[in-house]
Write a structure and sequence with these properties.
By secondary structure, the protein is an alpha+beta fold. The chain has three helices and four strands; from the N terminus they run ββααββα. Helix content is about 30%, strand content about 10%. The strands form two sheets. It has a two-stranded antiparallel sheet with strand order 1-2. Strands 3-4 form a two-stranded antiparallel ribbon. β3 and β4 form a beta hairpin.
Length: about 170
């Protein structure tokens, strides 16, 4: 299995993936998602057919994490629509004297941190990212290494013989 690398934690809902994913841009969306999947496949050391059932389950889990990361990045790119995006965590939200007040927090290393300081006092748009709405999927069932053995326990398999081996 490929060594896992942690996606920066300033990204809400970040998970581990097999390798750093590409930056997602709207004008190159298909190519960026395709590149992310190709990078993941290139990192695999064994083909599906050569893997044990346990290894296949790990492969499915890793690919699920990669796909979820790419879905979050696509949702972020669509919501941003070309504007600077600063991943934040929403803290306290309360009714204040001039309306609703909200505290936010973000990583000191976030790419657009300077845009946040530059925007103090300016109107801004807060988009609540709904990527989780697109992350639900039925789990993929990995087939077992061996099919179940037919031991002839079905009622239809009963014959009239007494089961004596001496016959």
């Amino acid at each position: 299995m490929a060594k896992r690398k942690t996606i920066p934690e300033d990204q809400p809902g970040a998970t581990e993936t097999a390798a750093a994913a590409p930056k997602i841009e709207l004008d190159t969306l298909l190519a960026d998602v395709r590149a992310g999947m190709i990078d993941w496949f290139r990192d695999q050391t064994m083909t599906w057919a050569m893997q044990t059932e346990t290894q296949r389950r790990g492969t499915v889990d890793d690919l699920h994490e990669r796909a979820a990361y790419l879905v979050r990045e696509v949702a972020k790119a669509v919501a941003a629509d070309g504007r600077p995006v600063i991943p934040v965590r929403i803290g306290d939200v309360k009714h204040g004297k001039n309306g609703i007040e909200c505290k936010i927090g973000c990583s000191k290393e976030t790419e657009q941190r300077h845009a946040l300081f530059d925007a103090v006092g300016d109107p801004a748009l807060l988009v609540v990212l709904g990527a989780k709405d697109y992350l639900e999927a039925e789990p993929y069932r990995v087939p077992p290494d061996q099919a179940d053995l037919d031991l002839g326990d079905d009622a239809a398999d009963d014959d009239a013989e007494d089961g004596d081996l001496d016959d």
